[in-house]
Design brief:
The chain contains 2 helices and 6 strands. By secondary structure, it is α/β, with parallel strands linked by helices. The longest helix has 26 residues. It holds the Pfam family ABC_trans_aux.
Length: 145
């Protein structure tokens, strides 16, 4: 499973907060413990490992030989302060390793309402949005392969 591609605003440790649909800011004095794409990759791998639906899953370059690869594009991982929602969105493509053919593709989006934009609420909301998104990605992937 490759690390997701992401636009510059998401390709960092900073937590994105949108005060309006066209403005990007960051949550003050709060950061993820790694770049967001690396965290998403690690947590998706963990979700697949916990599913018991695959024999093995690893990032590219791992020791395992795979039948399929999952390529993802991180489209949103942010809090929309203007409507108090945590949003996680990504596009996923299942690629057959034998011939590079796209087996299936789908866009996933999870929205979780949040009561305020305090740091603890924002991170809890984003974690909840990602949990829903990762469950959907795993279920879809296992059904497609």
């Amino acid at each position: 499973m490759t690390e997701p591609t992401a636009i510059g605003a998401l390709n960092s440790e900073r937590i994105v907060v949108r005060p309006s649909p066209t403005v990007v800011t960051y949550l003050a004095a709060t950061r993820w413990n790694d770049r967001l794409p690396a965290l998403v990759q690690a947590r998706l791998i963990e979700a697949f490992q916990n599913s018991d639906g695959v024999r093995a899953v690893s990032p590219p370059g791992g020791a395992q030989v795979s039948d399929y690869g999952l390529v993802t594009d991180l489209r949103a991982f942010e809090v929309n302060a203007y409507d108090r929602q945590a949003v996680a969105e990504l596009n996923a493509r299942i690629i057959a390793d034998s011939n590079g053919r796209v087996v299936a593709s789908r866009r996933f989006r999870t929205v979780v309402p949040i009561p305020d934009t305090e740091a603890a609420t924002v991170t809890a909301g984003l974690n909840a949005a990602f949990e829903g998104l990762s469950r959907d990605v795993v279920a879809w992937t296992l059904g497609a392969i």
